Amino acid sequence: MARIDQNLYLKNSVVLLRLFIGWHFLYEAVIKLYNPDWTAFGYLATAQGPLRGFYVALTNESLIGTVDMLNTFTLLFVGLTLTLGIFEKWGAFAGIGILALYYLAHPPFPGAIQMNVEGNYWFVNKILIELIACAIILLYPTGRYFGLGHLFQPEQKTLKTENP
Question: What highest taxon heads this organism's lineage (predicted)?
Fold first, then answer.
């Protein structure tokens, strides 16, 4: 019986993790959608680390509008999939991708100047923690348990066997 309780606690914990991360992504998307002045320009222009050139190139006038739109769309997609518990593997994968891009734009490496970040970190920051949490959701989806995932997954058939 203790094993059943542990599995139930694990499922419930991952559901809460999924809902909270989904809410965070959804909130960030909505804030960006309703703020016509929002742009990723400042974040990208102040990028540090080995990929600085890539991020600064994204601030080009011909690209920044597309970058802003893709950023907002990805946040919305991850937020909806994780909050609703539908296609959450896709959402978790997209979340990992965008969080990796955020992390690498301002990596908290020793000796690096920390700009546009909330505090001083050494390798591990809030972005990396949320990225790892998305990896857990990717590996342990719960949408079928608590969410709309059961609507899009085929029923699992059980085979009945005769007892000898």
Answer: Bacteria
Domain count, the chain: 1
For 25-82, write each residue's pLDDT tens digit: 999 999 999 999 999 999 999 998 889 999 999 999 999 999 999 999 999 999 999 9
State the pTM of this model: 0.85
The answer as to whether 137 is a domain residue is yes
Structural domain containing residue 129: 2-151
Question: Mind giving me the DSSP string for the chain?
Answer: -HHHHHHHHHHHHHHHHHHHHHHHHHHHHHHHHT-TT--SHHHHHT--STTHHHHHHTTSTTTHHHHHHHHHHHHHHHHHHHHHTSSHHHHHHHHHHHHHHHHHHS---TT----SSSS--BSB-HHHHHHHHHHHHHHS--TTTSSGGGGSSPPPP-------
